[in-house]
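User: What would this chain look like folded?
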Amino acid sequence: MSNLIDNKKVALFVGCFANYYYPEVGMAALEVLQKNDVDVIVPDQVCCGLPMMAKQNSKGTYKNMIYNAAKLQQKVAEGYVILTTCSSCSLFMKRNYVLYGNEDAVCVANNTYHFSEYLLKLYKAGSMQTGFQTVSESVFYQTPCHLRAIRIGQPTIEILRLVPGIILKHISDQCCGMGGAYGFDKAHYRVSCEIGKTLTKQILASSVDRVVTDCGGCKLQIEAYCGCAAEHPLLLLQEAYGN
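Assistant: Here's the prediction, encoded as structure tokens.
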């Protein structure tokens, strides 16, 4: 823990969704970390492998895992920890990389943190910049299933509560129905919609200023069902820092 806080060196694992569809998240992560005097690098990387595993492409998954493990382990050896902005990447790298029995992959798994998990550690050590501007808005926060599966508590909620003015009007643990790659399949569309009904009803009844979730898949599903924008919490933190 002391090295993690004292070094303040982060190797950012951007993830496919932020890299290709939602680059604002990567930029927000960079600005939030720099605001906290964190040395940030973006090492060479490929997809974490989770989407391929979901489609039973075990060879592709293993190939990507080996590639990432070799690249990221080098950065861990240089004193960096690995930071993810995506709850699905977080889960897969923290929990599944160790299952492959590769020494580099185990090292990566043991040194990977979800962004809010890392920021919360900084905060508890008195090393997080909390000079936020007031954001006077109500928020509906949806906890992604993959974030709950990591079993690290609710670090994103704890971080959002540090921002003055934010009212977390509703915190939901309901599944959106996307289920990683599951909801993208035509054959699963109706079931996916059925699974997401409860969350949809909660959001439509909430009358909030903003809907927030850590997961890109959840974001897509929420926007499709509810007709409202869903944001990554890092964008809210970026705004609170005045960026």
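The mean pLDDT is 93. If you want, I can go into more detail on any region.
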